[in-house]
Design goal:
The structure is a single chain. It contains 14 helices and 17 strands. It is of the alpha/beta class. It folds into three domains: 92 residues, Arc Repressor Mutant, subunit A (Orthogonal Bundle); 119 residues, Aspartate Aminotransferase, domain 1; 240 residues, Aspartate Aminotransferase, domain 2 (3-Layer(aba) Sandwich). The termini are far apart.
Amino acid sequence: MLRPWSLQIQLRPQSQTPLYLQIVHSFIEEIRRGRIGAGTALPGTRTLSEQLAVSRKTIIAAYDELVAQGWATSDSTRGTFVSPDLPSLPRWTSRAAPSLGVLGGDGFSWKKAPQVIPWAERSENYLIFDDGTPDPRLAPVEIIARTYRRALVRTARRSELGYGDPRGAFALRQAISTMLNSERGLATTASNICLTRGSQMALYLCSVLLVRPGDYVAVEKLTYPPARTAFARTGASIVSVALDDGGIELDDLERACDEFPVKVIYLTPHHQFPTTVSMRPERRLRLLELSKRKGIVVVEDDYDHEFHFDHQPLLPLASASLDRTVYVGSLSKLISPSLRIGYLVSSPGFVDDVANEIMLIDRQGSQTMETAVAELMSEHISSYARKVHGIYKARRDHFATVLTTVFAQEMSFTIPAGGLAFWVQFKTPLALDELVAAAYRERLKILPSDNFSSDGEAPYALRLGYASMNEGELTEAVQRLHRAYKSVKR
């Protein structure tokens, strides 16, 4: 079969990224650039292995990964093809990104701050289905303590205990840049990155700088409440967009953008919050094309990229281009939420303005802690990540088994490919507020779907974070939830 394109794959044997993933990323980039169209046949595994001088098993692994992620389809007799569902796109162009400038006595009043998600405060004898947080008991406390002590001594000797760069410690920004480039397909330097005290601070800074009163911000119908509220409090009008099992519905988003002058799209494409679904490749390409055509900034919240269990994670939207994308991530979920290490990635001009805004509210983070985390990333984080990855996968599988056994035909869910929470839906209607109260009487705290609704409508569903409980606690929590459910359904 004739192919009107030539391969542009350059392998780097010394890279930490496995060869098969380098091949996967190269094919995805070729598809994004429009050089390989939907339905195009890929080279045979033997032919490509000879061209690239790698084993045929490496090519097979790469093709299997492309199929698993939805970029390709396989036919046992005809070969491997680019997915026919992908849209036909013009070639991507690389351009310099523009700067995205944008108590209690008489007479004492203030603007009331909404409680966007009920505080999941730990209390004795209560179990909590949080929104998907890690287990702090697994944090490598001794390693963190040793690393922090070394960093404290080192920063003191270098006279770095005073004020520093509001973008954060260079060593950590460089370490994050290296990680993003090698593992997530981005093209960054330290100048593209600003450290924040968790991803929520990054989202708040996005809302302050990207939105003016009267601007329109599109979010998914079910979404992360603190992000939606942050945009609303800066004066934005929120446009709710439908979603399904493939993520945000692009036809509905197109209609919304035609009806309103949408300036920003906020979404969680990797593990959609709260439903956990992954955005399909064809929709990712359409979304990027739409944002470019309409001049819309995409704020991509990749809050738990590290926790993906069934195949390699999909590359972020930002891996295609940072021209009109702000990428938000966090190390807090991997290491410990108490460390408060988030980051924002975009054009250097926008990052500099974010740093200026930080000077008004926080000045900078902990130089010592950031230096310590940079050392953790270079020496310890890979082994720790492998350890907790296995633990959380085992908890996920155990949780799915217990839910299926206890709730039988009363509940439906899809085991998430990644992330630290399940999205479960009840098969018959019930009053969610009554279920919350009944669960509390069973010494269980839960988060119903109405917490996440952008338009006031919510399914009969719950987001159940499983990672912060061990297998025994998960079993007990499900039993308490079932007792609460039965009391409400009577």
